[in-house]
Recover the amino acids of this structure.
């Protein structure tokens, strides 16, 4: 098995006008491992994901996926790299105009040109994998509860059996019990695939369950990284304040005045 990290970021910066969002992000994710990035709103979590995916071009630094520098890829090369990824979006991001099974099979049909009959068979199997019966496949996403929509989103993320899966706030909007169900499904599905995963969340229960390692981003930099079992003894005041949800500490709340 190759020792090359599946994802490696070095000195990645990104600004939007005068606002510097990423200030030198360094990350390395080994193959088959799960890294969760925690941090408050506006700290750079989503921008980090988008830079890896090529949706945003970093101003400086290196991003390698499976050893390949992706910041300089052509559109065709980037499309090939993106075929390695699956993603569970925040809010599931399902297409209301398509039945559930077509949502799950979307990447197979549109991205890989698979026949609809074959794609539907895979979609229904993935729905079963996340605990949904075949009849759900013919429903509209608007007919589903929030928890069921998340399951459909997870089924879509694993439909192509990707090498890498991104989870963007996978438990947002769910009650604690359903959030735990989703976390368990994520762990099971990822282990089945042997995928490398990168997740961003502010839900510490989720982070503790799905991570091998946890990294905290603050003001555009990774300020701590370690095994999930060591986060309670990190010795980092910023991490300690965040994981315990304390209003007072070194993290300054940005209050917008009207």
């Amino acid at each position: 098995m190759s020792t090359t990290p599946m994802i490696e970021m070095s000195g990645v910066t990104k600004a939007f006008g005068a606002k510097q969002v990423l200030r030198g992000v360094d990350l390395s994710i080994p193959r088959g491992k799960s890294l969760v990035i925690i941090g408050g709103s506006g700290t750079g979590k989503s921008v980090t994901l988008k830079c890896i995916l090529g949706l945003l071009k970093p101003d400086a630094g290196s991003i390698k996926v499976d050893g390949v520098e992706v910041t300089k890829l052509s559109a065709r090369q980037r499309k090939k790299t993106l075929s390695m990824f699956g993603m569970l979006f925040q809010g599931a991001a399902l297409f209301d105009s398509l039945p559930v099974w077509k949502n799950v099979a979307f990447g197979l049909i549109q991205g890989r040109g698979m026949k609809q009959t074959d794609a539907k068979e895979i979609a229904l199997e993935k729905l079963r994998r996340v605990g949904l019966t075949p009849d759900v496949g013919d429903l509209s996403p608007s007919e589903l509860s929030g928890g069921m929509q998340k399951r459909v989103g997870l089924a879509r993320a694993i439909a192509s059996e990707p090498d890498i899966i991104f989870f963007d706030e996978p438990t947002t909007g769910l009650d604690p019990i359903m959030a735990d169900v989703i976390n368990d499904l994520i762990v099971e599905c990822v282990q089945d695939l042997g995928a490398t995963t990168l997740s961003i969340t502010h839900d510490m229960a989720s982070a503790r369950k799905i991570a091998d390692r946890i990294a905290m981003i603050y003001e555009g930099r990774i300020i701590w990284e370690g095994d999930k079992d060591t986060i309670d003894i990190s010795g980092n005041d910023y991490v300690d304040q965040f994981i315990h949800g304390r209003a007072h500490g070194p993290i300054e709340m940005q209050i917008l005045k009207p």
The helical segments are 45-53, 75-82, 100-111, 116-129, 146-158, 176-193, 204-210, 237-244.
